[in-house]
Amino acid sequence: MHRFSQACLLDRLLGTGTVHAEHFEDFAATLAMFHASVPRATPDQHFGTAQAIYRPVMENFEQIARALGQAAVPTDLHDWSENRFAELHPRLDQRREQGFIRECHGDLHLGNMLLKEGRMMAFDGIEFSAALRWIDTISEVAFLFMDLEERGRADLGWRFLNAYLDETGDHAGLGLLDFYLVYRALVRAKVAALRVVQIQDRETALQQFHGYVD
Predict the structure, then answer these.
(1) Eight-class DSSP state of 69
(2) pLDDT per position as a tens digit, 75-103
(3) Within 10 Å of residue 91's Cβ, how many Cβ atoms?
(4) Could you confirm whether domain 6-180 is CATH 3.90.1200?
C-alpha cells in the first residue's frame, strides 16, 4: 500500500498556490489515456442504460430527505433533473451505443486526488459498486469540473475540461455536461447531508451541503 501525506491532497493544496492550470492539463491527458484503455460496457450489461443513470440521480434526493428532512430537498434541482433527463434520454442511449460507458474511477473529486512529485494522481476509486464505477466518461470529467467550480476555481475547471476534449475529441459530451454537473453536485451534497447526522461539527457539514445546492 502506498502512503502519502494528507498535505498532498488537492482539496488542501488548491488554495495554497501550489497547484496550477498546467497540472490539470497534464492530468486531463492522463485521464484521457486511462479512459481509452479501460473496458467499455457491452450490450448485455445493464451499466449506462438510461434507467441506470436516472436511478442514482433520484436516490440523491431521497437520501438528502432521509438525512435532513423533506424541506431540505432542493425541489428546483429535482424538477430540473427530471426534465433534463427526459430531454437527454435518447442521447444517453446513444452514448452507450457509442461506447462511452466505461469502467471509470467513479469518485473523481479533489479529496481523492493528490499532487506528488509535480504530477496529479487519483486514488480511492469506487470498488463497492460497479454501477457507480461503470459510467459515462463525461460524467467522470464533470465531477472534477464541478468540484473546482464549487471551490471558486472554474478557471482551472475549464483548463482541465478543454485539455480533456483536445485529447479525446469528445465534444459531443458537452451536451450532457450540465446534467452531470448537477448530478455530481448533488452527490457531494448528499455526502455532506449524511455527515450532518454523523459528526459533531454540524455547522460545517451544513455549510458544505448548501454550497453544493444553493
Answers:
(1) -
(2) 999 999 999 999 999 999 999 999 999 99
(3) 15
(4) yes
